[in-house]
Amino acid sequence: MDFFKMDAVYEINDNLRLSENDNDLNACLTKLALLLDCEYYLFAILNPVSIFKSDLYILDNYPSCWKKYYNDEKLIDYDPIIDYSASNYAPIIWSMLEQSKWDKNKTNVIEEAKNSNLKSGFSFPVHTKNNSFGVISFANSNNEKTLISLHSNSYSYVLLVLPELLDSHQRINKNIGNTCTQLTPREKECLAWISEGKTTWEISKILDCSERTVSFHITNLQTKLGTNNRSQSISKSILTGVMNPFPL
């Protein structure tokens, strides 16, 4: 590895630890992109709200024309990079995403990106707590520049920065996709026993309290989760990380 670049990586990580807002994170991402000899970067996290909906968090310097087109055409619904990142962990070069895997009737996102000067790039899938996932991508306006970047230990530098970036993002945006702190310990206990199929009466015996008290806690947790019934409460609590199905 280039020792001068390693010093730059350490500096970026130091800056991330001191970051206070998204502007600070953007500044660190800009430095990382420059370190990789890349013109563009994107850091995106999808936080699940329900089975059908996710909140999208993005930091990037992509061309504005591409962002407008991407949003207007809802390309996120069939973006192969997002699709790949949802179920993989290894980095991917955009050119490796085969056209044969895409729906022929939908927009070729990679080819369309080239028209907005995002001609080549590579991405790292990101998986965080609360079932959130996302991607960090770097791109260039020409293929040669990306190839040079890939042959200069770019993957290693990104992997050294990524943990600090995720920690800083979660610290700064701690309320995004996070409802864990909203439930009291008693509400979590009731939710756990509901997931085991216990009735209100059974839960009251397990927790040594009245059925009315159990019903009170269940009503409160449903209000906090924004759910209408017990089944939806279980589904949303697991999806958003309120309840861990595999406690340690």
Please identify which CATH superfamily of the largest domain we are dealing with: Transcription factor LuxR-like, autoinducer-binding domain
> In angstroms, what is the radius of gyration?
22 Å
Strand order of the largest sheet: 2-1-5-4-3
CATH C-level category of the largest domain:
Alpha Beta
Give the tally of structural domains.
2
Give the helix/strand class. alpha+beta
Level-2 CATH architecture of the largest domain: 2-Layer Sandwich
Largest sheet: 5 strands, antiparallel
Strand element count: 5
Helix content: 40-55%
Q: What is the fold-level CATH name, i.e. the topology of the largest domain?
A: Beta-Lactamase
Strand content is 5-15%
Shape: elongated
Tally of contiguous helical segments: 11
What would your notes on this structure say?
By secondary structure, this protein is of the alpha+beta class. It folds into two domains: 3-172, Transcription factor LuxR-like, autoinducer-binding domain (Beta-Lactamase); 180-239, Arc Repressor Mutant, subunit A (Orthogonal Bundle). 50% of the residues lie in helices and 14% in strands. It contains eleven helices and five strands, in the order ααββααβαββαααααα. The chain has helices at 3-18, 22-35, 64-72, 80-87, 109-114, 143-150, 154-172, 185-195, 200-207, 211-225, 230-239; strands at 40-48, 54-60, 92-93, 120-127, 133-140. The chain has a five-stranded antiparallel β-sheet with strand order 2-1-5-4-3. Helix 8 (185-195) crosses helix 11. It holds the Pfam family Autoind_bind.
